[in-house]
Amino acid sequence: MSTSELRRRHESEGYEHLASTSSRTEGSSSSQRDASYWSRFSQWIQDSCYQIMAYTVWDNIVSGFKPGRVRAFELLDIQSRDTVLLVGEGSGLDFECLPEQTNRAALKAFDFSPQMVRQCKIKAQQLDIPEDNCFVGDAQNLPFTDERFDKIYFPLSIASIPNPSLALEEAERVLSQGGKIVVFDKLVDDAVSITWRRKILNIFTRCIFADINRNLSIILHNVSDLKIIHYESLEGKLSGILTKPLGGFYRIAVIVRDRDFPDQPAIQAHL
């Protein structure tokens, strides 16, 4: 589906409908209704899980990803004058990993979960980030003008966004000339067969927190002006009892506009 079609449906029907139709093949009207109902039901379950986790176990579960967050900011290469956007920031755990030179007054961070944003605001106050810079938002419909941000970061969020292609299209729209996007998440490499066990597990994880079978090349297929210039694994680099064994499933990618970096070769989403 082209980006123009994604945007047309997004503007006319809203993201819940888009999430249920973006990957749907043609079929009977009843099967279409079933797909839509399932999408809304699974989204409701995911929202409920995030509401519960925001006030209970979330920070403890994902604290072991701190080495990945630090590495992501290294690759973003934030400068003192850069405007920075954190897409799907969750409870604000990335704030403590921000480079010292970050212009915190110009930083914006949002999440789809109001409960997560409340926790995010608390951490922002503790780290000299204006509370109003944290807000509830939709990655598929950013409330910013074109070319607004120098650096854009997706911290463990691209796998949770209903339509990640539209989210990256929006990121490209608000990215300033010569800007950079970094994605840190669980991703499947190119040309890697997904096992039946992982497919079954994904049925449950999609409802609870994320799609664990997403591939960055496929996501970027409809965002024609973006390319991957760096792609690495976090195997052996995470910390914590729960997260350290999972490092091999997580990737960090650097994405730029082709026209901004014509001499930088595009690479595939594989190691």
Describe the structure.
It contains nine helices and seven strands, in the order αααααββαββαβααββ. By secondary structure, the protein is α/β, with parallel strands linked by helices. It has one domain: Rossmann fold (3-Layer(aba) Sandwich), CATH 3.40.50. It has a seven-stranded mixed β-sheet with strand order 3-2-1-4-5-7-6. The chain is globular and about 45 Å long.
* Largest beta-sheet characterization: 7 strands, mixed
Number of strands: 7
User: How confident is the prediction overall: mean pLDDT?
Assistant: 84
Question: Order of strands across the widest beta sheet?
Answer: 3-2-1-4-5-7-6
Give the CA-based shape. Answer: globular
Secondary-structure element string: HHHHHEEHEEHEHHEE
β content, as a range?
15-25%
Helix content: 25-40%
In DSSP terms (H or I, runs of 4 or more residues), the helix count works out at 9
The CATH class label is: Alpha Beta
Task: Give the structural class.
Answer: alpha/beta
Kindly report the name of the CATH homologous superfamily: Vaccinia Virus protein VP39
What's the alpha carbon Rg, rounded to whole Å? 18 Å
Low-confidence stretches are 1-35
CATH architecture: 3-Layer(aba) Sandwich
Through-space gap between termini: 27 Å
Tally of separate domains: 1
Fold-level CATH name: Rossmann fold
